[in-house]
Amino acid sequence: VQLQASGGGSVQAGGSLSLSCAASGRKINSYAMAWFRQTPGKEREFVAAIRLGGGDRYYADSVKGRFTISRDNAKNTVYLQMNSLKAGDTAVYYCAAGNRPLSIIRSGAYDYWGQGTLVTVSS
C-alpha cells in the first residue's frame, strides 16, 4: 500500500485544516487507518485511528473533541478534520495503514506509512 498525505499548511490558532491520505496499490478496507504526528527531537505521537468498518474511532486526549478521523473505503482515502487548532498541534502529520495484532494507538500496529504533511499553527 502506498499512502500519499496532503492538506497540510499554515494556519492561525483557532483555525481549521483538513488532511487527506490517498491510498494506492491495495484497498484500505482491509486495514485499520491512523494519523500520527512528529516534531523535531520527539517520538512519533498517536493522533487518531479508525478501524476497518469505520465504526470505532480512537483519539489522543490532546485532540479529542477537536479532531475527527473518517474514511471512505470507496475512494480509498482517510481524512483528518482538524478544528480549533493550537500552536501545540504544529507537527508533520503521517497517515498509516496496518493490521498487526498490537494496540491500534501504537505505531507498531502499522505496516505502511505516508510521507508526511506539515501543519504549522501560529499563535
Give a description of the structure.
With 123 residues, the chain is mainly β. It contains no helices and 11 strands. The strands form 2 sheets. Strands 2, 4, 5, 6, 9, 10 and 11 form a 7-stranded mixed β-sheet that branches. A 4-stranded antiparallel β-sheet has the order 1-3-8-7, with no helix packed on it. A hairpin with a 6-residue loop joins strand 4 and strand 5 (45-50). The N and C termini lie far apart (36 Å).
Layout of secondary structure:
Blueprint (H helix, E strand, L loop, with lengths): L1 E5 L2 E4 L4 E8 L7 E7 L6 E6 L6 E3 L7 E6 L4 E6 L8 E8 L13 E2 L3 E6 L1
Parallel strand pairs: 2-11
Antiparallel strand pairs: 1-3, 3-8, 4-5, 4-9, 5-6, 7-8, 9-10, 9-11
- Rg over alpha carbons: 13 Å
- Give the low-pLDDT segments: none
Tell me how many strands there are.
11
Estimated structural class:
mainly beta
What is the makeup of the main sheet?
7 strands, mixed
The mean pLDDT is: 96
**Which word captures the global form?**
globular
Query: Distance between the terminal alpha carbons, to the nearest Å?
Result: 36 Å
Count the helices. How many?
Answer: 0
Helix fraction, binned, reads under 10%
**Element order, helices and strands?**
EEEEEEEEEEE
Strand content: over 45%
